[in-house]
Amino acid sequence: MKKEMGTLLLLSAVMFSGCSPDNKEDTTQEQGSGETPSEQVTTQQDAKLIGTSENKEIKLYEATNGVKLDFNGKEKDFNWSFDNSGVLNPPQVFYTDVTGDGNEEAVIIIHTGKGTELDNYNIHVVNKDFTEIKVPEYEEIVANHIESKVVKKDDGTLGIAVKAQGKEFNVDYDANPEPKLELEKDELGFGAITIYYLENQKIKLHLAASAFPKLDGRVSQTFVADFFITYKFDSAKNEFMVDQIEVKPI
């Protein structure tokens, strides 16, 4: 009987010691981020790092269908497009407060395309919970805030009138006047150059405006003015809006 009791006690001890490590490991995983350390290491090793903030609070990785954003150790995929063919314009990554609420956001400026008379960027502002804050793109700004009129003057030069936020600007473009000159359209064109940047924790956009003179049936794109847009954050709408528009003739 004593021999049988000893065998049972020994078997119970072995069973208890075999279960204990598994229970401890499960508790550790529940308290973590939901990913095992090995999974986190694999993600960082496999993904290509394409940009970081100054102190590496924000890291941006190239992903299969866009990018992976690491915000202080937490990650999420976004289907943002970017120009991965060139190394001269890598993504610009910032960790700064652009909303004025006292909390830093991730600000990502991504180069999307470059060519002859073409230079385009996109901007993304992301909260720590990975919600993205809307920044109006140039099409919306032009439709809601900018009016323009382009006319051919008697001497063959171009007369350009612009109204932005109630302010009027007049630009005379007199390079290479040509009496036979015609116009393809009677308003300015936008979209060839859209460059976002940060200045004093403000989001700004450089937007180039073009006229489209036509000579002997051939249409050319002629840059005639630069628009500089400053955004401000609207806390009620939880999005950015246009604050100021400055127009400078080229």
Mean pLDDT: 83
Question: pLDDT below 50 for ≥5 consecutive residues: which ranges?
Answer: 1-44
Number of domains: 3
Biggest sheet features: 8 strands, mixed
Percent range of helical residues:
10-25%
Give structural notes:
The protein has 250 residues and is α+β, with helices and mostly antiparallel strands. The protein has three domains: 1-32; 46-127; 138-249, no CATH class. The chain contains three helices and 18 strands. The protein has helices spanning 2-31, 37-46, 138-145, and strands at residues 48-52, 58-63, 66-71, 74-78, 92-96, 105-115, 118-126, 132-133, 146-152, 158-164, 167-173, 182-183, 189-199, 202-211, 213-215, 218-219, 222-234, 239-249. Strands 5, 6, 7, 8, 13, 14, 17 and 18 form an eight-stranded mixed β-sheet that branches. A four-stranded antiparallel β-sheet has the order 1-2-3-4, covered by helices on one side. A three-stranded antiparallel β-sheet has the order 9-10-11. The relative contact order is 0.10. Residues 1-44 have low confidence and may be disordered.
Q: Briefly, what is this?
A:
The chain has helices at residues 2-31, 37-46, 138-145, and strands at residues 48-52, 58-63, 66-71, 74-78, 92-96, 105-115, 118-126, 132-133, 146-152, 158-164, 167-173, 182-183, 189-199, 202-211, 213-215, 218-219, 222-234, 239-249.
